[in-house]
Amino acid sequence: MKRSAIGRMAMFLGLPVVIGLAGASCGGEAGSGSQEVAQMASGADQFLMSLSDEERERATFDFDSDERERFHFVPPETFERHGLPLEDMSTEQRSLAHDLLKTGLSQSGYMTATEIIELEAILEALEGGEAFSRDPDLYFVSVFGTPSTDGTWAWRFEGHHLSLHFTIIDGAITVSAPTFLAASPAEVRDGPRAGLRPLGSLEDAGRALLASLDASQREVAILDEVAPTNIVSGVELAPDPLSPVGIVGSDLTAAQRDLLMDVIEFYTSVMSDDIAALRLAKVQDDGIENVTFAWAGGTEYGDVSYFRVQGPSFLIEFDHTQRDPNHIHSAWRDFDGDFGRDLLRDHMAQVVH
Predict the structure, then answer these.
(1) Which of 90, 11, 2 is nearest to 258 (CA)?
(2) Number of structural domains, the chain?
(3) What is the pLDDT of residue 26?
(4) Which residues of the chain have pLDDT under 50?
(5) Which residues, including other chains, have CB under 8 Å from residue 66's CB and lie 6 or more apart?
(6) Inter-residue contact 194 to 188 (CB < 8 Å)
(7) Residue 203's domain spans which residues?
(8) Using CA atoms, how far apart are residues 319 and 203, in angstroms rounded to an integer?
(9) What pLDDT score was predicted for residue 244?
(10) CA geometry: angle at 290 spanning 178 and 182, to 5°?
(11) pTM score of the predicted model
């Protein structure tokens, strides 16, 4: 049985979803024995040990540095990134950076991330350098604090159209948001990679849910004939919940709620097992009946379009509005837990000052 099916079964049977080797609950109270935390700590250590003193200084920051909550998904010319870029790494160091990236993602998630990076070279060929430089080597690795299996630290992998943040609090993995995934071109239409759609399954899941709605449901779900020009949450450090508009899960059939879960599970399935379980637990706690689905823009493939899925604690946005359109922005945000804020707040309350 696939992980998504296990999570879905647990959710609708009202069973707790368990993560990690320590048997921790998805509230985030993971033990120091979590296999994934150990893998992340080992991966970060091996990467940092491969660096020179000067390279390590560029790649590392204090955990409480303001840098930890700086993020964006735009090209490097419009947002100065810090950390160590792939272009300044040796072949061995690049391999270790990718090994670290693999610890935070599933196999399919790692493939999605590397396809997004691959698109930079394709976009450079399409644009001919007339807008921004497109460079698959301008992705930066940063480590915050000291990697360990029982401490508090974080790491980040970020560049154009890819912003991935992983936070560990007292040895406990967190939802590890924000997560930003984008693709330009959304679909490669020519050349040896024709047909490549890194975010195709997310778009297909949203469109399948929309197509399943009857006329009365569509009247509720479709907010506007005009889509917003970008994801609405943007890069707010602590985004407030958007207006809970659209059709609510309680007004969907069981089959349609399964389709709604397909959208959600794109953003759970790209992450490692423990993070995926935490995200599914958010949905379980919110109740699928309280999750809303909203659409704006055209309803056919090739139309400018936007949709969002929102629960009381999380938000998924998808925006396909640029390049005719052939350019997708999408994100998972956690209203209380971006950058591990919920667990960090509990941690600070327990620390004697």
Answers:
(1) 11
(2) 1
(3) 38
(4) 1-33, 353
(5) none
(6) yes
(7) 3-187+195-350
(8) 9
(9) 81
(10) 30
(11) 0.90
